[in-house]
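Hi support team,

I've been running sequence recovery on a batch of backbones for a student project. Most finish fine, but this one hangs at about 90% for roughly twenty minutes before it completes. I'm not sure whether the input is malformed or the queue is just slow. I've pasted the structure tokens below so you can try to reproduce it. Let me know if you need the job ID as well.

Thanks,
M.K.
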């Protein structure tokens, strides 16, 4: 059986295009660009909690890096480097090779060098750290929303959560709807290009990983503002239109995680510029609400402006 060092050499060592020193020494070395802030973030994926046992390793490789790149995108940072700490139950080389193929394919799409990590035996856990760069004063922080801003959402919401509900037997999807929703769940697209393009246009941003309302709640808290969302303006996954269970539909739309779209706020004067960015990227960007003065809250309002009450508003690993 291959040793830990053999596995690292075979599957996780690639020439680093931009770092001074990549995998193989006690530390990696890189040189930050002048005038740039370094942005760093870690996300962990645990078998049985974030993905099902038996998940296709190549998709897992792509997704585990994607969810980390999504955090950089939400900060308006350009991805540069990644570190991969992985615990593996066994040295299953076919599994590791597929995982590495997915990981490096995602890395290549976004110009990311894998510059280090750790490899150990244990229950399957993948912990990735990403490093990016953002020009000083242009980071899209959660505490930067101002009353009067428009609230925007990229893409559409609810597809990943609907796929999860299908896997849990709570609904039945078929055909194109099933394919589209599973792709959202298993193979999310980090909105890296959008994050970069929003620098100088958006004020606050966040990626939707725990549910639209819960994540907007983080902006509301950090910025000390209220947020009103127009329920009838929300762009939703097309499979949700056919979902007859209204509670499940609203749960997926407003509380479903894992979509990895960006929600952001921007002054109304930026509307035309933001619409133009959406056109250039071929990505729907939809104004879904407004930032208002007052105590931190997020309110989903129906077409008549009345607050809607939802059974679940987001995902919390330590919640009920
Ligand atoms: P150390 O004992 O100094 O921590 P390791 O034996 O853990 O070193 O790792 C050797 C080298 O391989 C280091 O440069 C480390 O960053 C890198 N490395 C280990 N595991 C991975 C991995 N899964 N992906 C990328 N690099 C890794
Ligand atoms: Mg180590």
């Amino acid at each position: 059986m291959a040793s830990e060092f053999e596995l690292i050499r075979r599957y996780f060592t690639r020439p680093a295009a931009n770092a001074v020193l990549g995998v193989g020494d006690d530390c990696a070395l890189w040189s930050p660009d002048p005038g740039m802030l370094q942005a760093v973030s870690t996300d962990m994926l645990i078998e049985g909690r974030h993905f099902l046992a038996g998940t296709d390793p190549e998709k897992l490789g792509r997704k585990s890096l994607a969810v980390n790149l999504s955090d950089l995108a939400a900060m308006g940072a350009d991805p540069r480097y990644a570190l991969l700490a992985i615990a593996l139950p066994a040295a299953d080389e076919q599994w590791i090779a597929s995982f590495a193929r997915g990981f490096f394919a995602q890395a290549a799409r976004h110009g990311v060098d894998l510059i280090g990590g750790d490899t150990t035996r244990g229950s399957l856990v993948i912990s990735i750290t990403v490093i990016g760069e953002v020009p000083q004063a242009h980071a899209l922080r959660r505490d930067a929303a101002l009353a009067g801003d428009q609230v925007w959402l990229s893409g559409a919401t609810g597809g990943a959560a609907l796929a999860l509900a299908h896997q849990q037997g709570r609904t039945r999807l078929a055909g194109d709807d099933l394919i589209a929703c599973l792709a959202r769940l298993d193979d999310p697209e980090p909105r890296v290009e959008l994050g970069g393009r929003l620098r100088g246009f958006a004020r606050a941003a966040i990626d939707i990983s725990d549910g639209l309302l819960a994540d907007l709640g983080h902006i509301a808290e950090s910025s000390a503002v209220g947020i009103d969302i127009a329920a009838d303006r929300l762009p939703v996954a097309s499979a949700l239109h056919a979902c007859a269970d209204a509670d499940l539909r609203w749960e997926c739309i407003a509380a479903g995680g894992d979509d990895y779209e960006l929600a952001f706020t921007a002054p109304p004067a930026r509307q035309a510029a933001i619409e133009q960015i959406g056109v250039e990227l071929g990505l729907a960007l939809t104004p879904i609400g407004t930032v208002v003065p007052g105590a931190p809250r997020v309110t989903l309002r129906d077409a008549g402006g009345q607050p809607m009450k939802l059974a679940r508003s987001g995902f919390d690993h330590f919640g009920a």
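--
Follow-up from support: It reproduced on our side and the slowdown came from queue contention, not your input. The first strand starts at residue 36 and ends at 46. No action needed from you.
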